[in-house]
Amino acid sequence: MDADSLRALQAPLKDKYKQDPNAAVVTLKANGDLSGDGIACKVDTGRALVEAGLHPATGGPGTQACSGDMLLEALVACAGVTLKAVATALAFNLRGGSVSAEGDLDFRGTLGVAKDAPVGFREIRLRFDLDTDEPQERIDALTKLTERYCVVYQTLANPPPLALKITNAG
């Protein structure tokens, strides 16, 4: 896809959202199934059913998906798609490349071993290795816009209010 095709694809959406800001608000949903034996949650991704379980560092078997890995995978997916869309819009010469994320966890927090250990990632690093001949100024612009428009990146960098509620469905 080239910049003109992307603009043509997105123009009606942008016009609609300018005229009706409420039309731009979409509620995304995820669902999991807690039935079954073992400590696992079956998550419907819309493409496949993924069974998430305990990470081996917390006693898990290592045969199930880890939700921490899934968070990093969501970041990689979103950042990769965002970078490609921005590169397309900028007519940036991107021949290929890769994107990766890694994060540091201290499982003492998750297991309640040390109250001063955080529960969750202490640091997440997102990296792109691009195959391009673009000058550094254009790479810097691509970086800035990718960071600005990546939903998962921005959600992690500026967390929204989060609520947890448990009800008795039985």
Would you write up a description of this structure?
By secondary structure, the protein is of the alpha+beta class. The protein has a single domain (3-157), classed as GMP Synthetase, Chain A, domain 3 (2-Layer Sandwich), CATH 3.30.300. Helix content is 38%, strand content 20%. It contains five helices and five strands, in the order αβββαβαβαα. It has helices at residues 3-19, 67-89, 107-110, 136-149, 151-157, and strands spanning 31-33, 40-44, 49-53, 96-105, 121-131. A three-stranded antiparallel sheet has the order 1-2-3, with no helix packed on it. It has a two-stranded antiparallel ribbon with strand order 4-5. Helix 2 (67-89) packs across helix 4 (136-149). The mean pLDDT is 95.
